[in-house]
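Hi everyone,

Forwarding the result from last night's run.
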Amino acid sequence: MADHEVVKRILALALLVIVSACSSTSGPTVLSTRNVHPASNPNASIVVLEYTDLQCPSCRNAHETIVKPLLAQQGTRIRYEFRHFPLRSMHPQALGAAMAAECASDQGRFWDYVDLAFRKQRQMSAESLRAWAAELALEMPRFEECLASESKRELVLSEYQEGKKRGVYGTPTFFVNGDLVGEDTLEAIQDAIDAAAK
């Protein structure tokens, strides 16, 4: 058999393995399966990116007073994206909560889990992370397997490192089209959106 035929067969076999792995719906997924927020426009040219920590009280406040109103008012105009930035030294449950949200994402419930985590943040514990999944009627054996495996840890920490490289030191931190928004207020973000639109 010619060398190029051997290479072709090896490549075809490798492709088959990759496709099989990607099409599996039973086990945990290493990459994030979350989509753009459903209240925002996936095709918008203006991207609002937030680095956040699910155990951070300021992030909970921003979720209610900035993110929700922003999506209600500007949702068709912006693409809202979410990145994890767990401040582990201050918030011991933040990493676990981020991984749990990503495990919920594998079942299409990332945004519901995030909303619930912020709403019930004061009760956050290792047990509550599982209770919230049950409250959302997730397939619990699949969720438990994902959480126990810590398969989302690398994803969450890579987003944290990405944030540090971009100059993120605390949460929440917002960017509009890659530019850091100086103040964490609805007005400042709306001003940045208007400037980006011009």
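Residues 176 and 192 are 6 Å apart (CA to CA).

Cheers,
N.
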